[in-house]
Amino acid sequence: MKIAVYYIMVLLLLPALSNADKNTAASIIAKEPVTMMDLGLLKLNSMLSNKTFPGLTNATIGANYNARRGTIDIKVSNPVKKASQKQCQETIHHTKKIFLHTTDKKKISNIHHYFKHEGTRYKNKINWDNLADNIMITGIVLTKNNFQHSIYCQSKLMKNKITF
Q1: pTM of the predicted model, to two decimals?
Q2: How far apart are CA 122 and CA 92, in angstroms?
Q3: Which of 26, 63, 98, 142 might form a disulfide with 150, Cβ 3.0–4.6 angstroms?
């Protein structure tokens, strides 16, 4: 009888022992899905932080998703000798050059390449040209000697208008 009780207890404990390693932090996050937005922002920020761009040599550039507005916000902080509206306009202009190419007087954006993946599931559901219309660039030019003297400006990637 004692052997039977012992045998039953061992059998009851075996599933608990085999599941012990399945609740680790790594196994839990491995089951979480990564969205196309998460992966795209990761790739975009990686590229922005690992390159130097003409006119933005000392600039810090980063992107995030603004759920309230439904836009991808690219922020560019550019230290300059003397902050001015012209410097802010140039910062926006140089940032747009990273993502825009002009052919036959038409602006074409390449930003969707960071968010696309190899699968075909969303091929007909997502209008990738529409993504560029929802990119907001914020430029911040800072005077190197006095970082409190700064000028902010914004522009959509596909628009020419810049607001201060």
Answers
A1: 0.79
A2: 31
A3: 142
